Amino acid sequence: MTVHHSDPVLLYDGLCGVCDRSIQTILRFDRHGTLRFAALDSDFARAVIARHSELQGIDSVVFVHNPGRPDERVEVRSAAALQVLRYLGGPFRLLLAARIIPAGLRDRLYDRFAAIRYRVAGRYDTCPVPGPKVRARFLEV
Known about the structure:
37% of the residues lie in helices and 11% in strands. The chain has a 4-stranded mixed sheet with strand order 2-1-3-4, sandwiched between helices. The chain is globular and about 35 Å long. The chain has one domain (9-126). The chain is α+β, with helices and mostly antiparallel strands. A hairpin with a 7-residue loop joins strand 3 and strand 4 (73-76).
């Protein structure tokens, strides 16, 4: 599939083992092949954060709709995770039932897990380099 500049981008912690495994899972089950990825410490992510003041100091996954366009919008934490599930479709859509949980509670649970994510799956010294088959989907590799 052809990737376009308006295709969504998932910003993630490039040093996080849980995040890396999540990205690998997304790549394995992505039927569309259009979701792109950028580490939170990349120039691309810094530009998105500069355009959205609510993202200042963010340490969470961010789903960016229509990146760089006037109608760009972002979703963070549990809402971003739900967007990934919606994007993947198929059996992952069943997990969208989590929407019945109030957003505030979902985000508190997300934050609690995020606080221990390095203990769960480790932390890299540098952001892992994606394989050649998917490298084009990563911004600023």
